[in-house]
Specification:
The complex is a heterodimer. By secondary structure, chain A is mainly beta. Helix content of chain A is about 0%, strand content about 55%. Chain A has no helices and eleven strands. Chain B starts with a strand and ends with a strand. Chain B is globular and about 45 Å long. At the A-B interface, strand 5 and strand 10 of A face strand 5 and strand 6 of B.
Chain lengths: ~120, ~120
């Protein structure tokens, strides 16, 4: 979905390096998410943010940090990359139709990260 | 906590044949259910969703899904598959929890279409 963009699309890095993945959206949504996809494990939530001042850990946040620079921008950082962080990373956004009701999430094209 | 099980890791179907992908969920209240499709090299795209009302939900690309509360299932169906349907399919359940609305995804089912 061109409304959600991720950069870079592919990245190869070395163990111990710090790396940042960036996500931008033009959908005007307040809610943004970072997921990791591994074969056979589906998508697992790393961090999520419901507005610029609200950041929450997901189920696998260890080794990651995030920054919500603006409503439209949500970055994921790997402080010191390790090989088992090799995965496909997705950013997603959503609005809020009703309080308490999860709405459709719109995904970016993904970033394939390889840590050597 | 909610969870989703997709029991079939990989399914192979002939072009033109019917398709059913299974999804079972675990959630204490009325769930909000989604099916997404991921084509090779692409992000996830929403196929359909169930929030309430009619338990048979129509989606894009000719897909439909039926919510069965008694079986805790939300299976995805298509009467006749096309080669372009080859992809990975994810079922997801959403929690109803104000201020903590999230989706939990299943592990996915990879669909292969043979001529």
């Amino acid at each position: 979905d061109a409304d959600v963009t991720q950069t870079p699309r592919n990245r190869i890095t070395k163990t111990g390096k710090r790396i940042m993945l960036e996500c931008s959206q033009t959908k005007g949504h307040d809610r943004m998410y970072w997921y990791r996809q591994d074969p056979g494990l589906g998508l697992r939530l790393i961090y999520y943010s419901f507005d610029v001042k609200d950041i929450n850990k997901g189920e696998i946040s260890d080794g990651y940090s995030v920054s919500r620079q603006a409503q439209a921008k949500f970055s994921l950082s790997l402080e010191s990359a390790i090989p088992n962080q090799t995965a496909l990373y997705f950013c997603a956004t959503s609005g809020m139709r009703l309080a308490g009701v999860p709405d459709t999430q719109y995904f970016g094209p993904g970033t394939r990260l390889t840590v050597l | 906590a909610q969870s989703v099980t997709q029991p079939d890791i990989h399914i192979t179907v002939s072009e033109g044949a019917s398709l059913e992908l299974r999804c079972n969920y675990s959630y204490g209240a009325t769930p909000y259910l989604f099916w997404y499709v991921q084509s090779p090299g692409q992000g996830l795209q929403l196929l359909l969703k169930y929030f309430s009302g009619d338990t048979l939900v129509q989606g894009i690309k000719g897909f439909e899904a039926e919510f069965k509360r008694s079986q805790s299932s939300f299976n995805l169906r298509k009467p006749s598959v096309h080669w372009s349907d080859a992809a990975e399919y994810f079922c997801a359940v959403g929690s109803v929890n104000f201020g903590n609305e999230k989706l939990t995804f299943g592990t996915g089912t990879r669909l292969t279409i043979i001529p």
